[in-house]
Amino acid sequence: MPQPIHILHLHSTFALGGKEARAVRLMNAFGDRARHTIVSGMPDQLGARAAIAAGIKYEIAQNPPPLTGKPSVARFEAIARFMRRFDLVLTYNWGAIDGVMARRVFGKGMPPIVHHEDGFNADEARGLKPQRNIYRRFALGAAHALVVPSHTLEKIALKTWHQPREKVHRIANGIDVARYAAKPDPGAIPGFRRKAGEIVIGTLAGLREVKDLPALVRAVGGMSARARLVIVGEGPERAKIEAAAALLGMADRVHLPGFLPDPYRYVGLFDIMALSSKSEQFPIAVVEGMAAGLPIVAPAIGDIPTMVAPDNVAYLPSTSNEIRLRDVLQTVAIAKPEGRAWLGEQNRAKAAAEYDEKTMIARYAALYGEAIGRPDAFT
């Protein structure tokens, strides 16, 4: 049996969010054909490791060279030296772009790099920074491929970052849609129990600034309908979310269970899947809500308007304004249960038709195999 492919994953954070969930799902799918070393630019943000399946060979790198900091030849050389012992390097988002730049500066003897761009942090939510565009454009010349999940990012990669058409691969995020059709486990969210007559609004997100979750708290707090908010995820914004709930006197109606694996076990406990993000591209949480048969309420940003079923588009506020978000949530909450169920079924059908993970996994396996010159390495 050939030796497993040794893959280095460079993440700005390994707290469980959309890109981390996908990276872990691919790790699990590749099984014993690969082993993994994971770098988190924030060493204490490692929540996604809980989703790695038993038996997967992986390690969290100890004392790796810093992924961020003032550009310097010495820092790039240290990153390049670290990367040389791997067969394949996977980098994720702006927080890991210096890994790509290190290969650009010190390319000799370096493994291939596949860079992934899933979206932008809060500091670029309203517009991309010109200096970063120039930096990306130059660094990405050293990448074997650039992967994006959305049409919006694909256009940016081609027109703003000036990447060649053959280098840019748009691969939609996928999940095991069929699993979400099963009846959810009432005890899957620790400490959560539905109360009679209330609407449960849920979201899955890393608790980061760009997700603007305090705004979602305020939107739910302003509803006249009796509603409870469940935010599944972990991250540095937890204290701000809790403070927003306390300020509105609704701490008992905002539940933060932290990171929970296997979302198919509990997403169906929600009545509505909601997002309040300042920036999104192709959020997996939307696909998970769709697969569970839920209506989606989220800002009409990124690919979200083309992701959901056509009848759901009317419930996507044009901006992330929390007042508009509150009003749309209120409209969906007071609708008859059969109306919400009908809309959810439209979403479920679209998720099954377009976002099943088998296609996603096959495309990533083919791309990674092609990068290392072994097309069947991950199949």
Describe the structure in your own words.
The structure is a single chain. The model has no long low-confidence stretch (mean pLDDT 95). This protein is of the alpha/beta class and 379 residues long. Strand 6, helix 5 (151-160) and strand 7 form a beta-alpha-beta unit. It has two domains: 5-174 and 356-371, Glycogen Phosphorylase B (Rossmann fold, 3-Layer(aba) Sandwich), CATH 3.40.50; 178-354, Rossmann fold, CATH 3.40.50. It contains twelve helices and twelve strands. The longest helix has 18 residues, at 337-354. Helix 2 packs across helix 3 (97-105), helix 3 packs across helix 4 and helix 8 (284-291) crosses helix 11 (337-354). It has a seven-stranded parallel sheet, sandwiched between helices. It has a five-stranded parallel sheet with strand order 10-9-8-11-12, sandwiched between helices. The radius of gyration is 21 Å and the shape is globular.
Short description:
Helix content is 34%, strand content 15%.
**What's the CATH superfamily of the largest domain, by name?**
Glycogen Phosphorylase B
The sequence of SSEs as H and E is: EHEEHEHEHEHEEHEHEEHEHHHH
Report the count of strand segments: 12
> Average pLDDT, to the nearest integer?
95
Key features?
Rossmann fold; 12 helices; 34% helix; 5-stranded parallel beta sheet; 379 residues; 15% strand; alpha/beta; 2 domains; 7-stranded parallel beta sheet
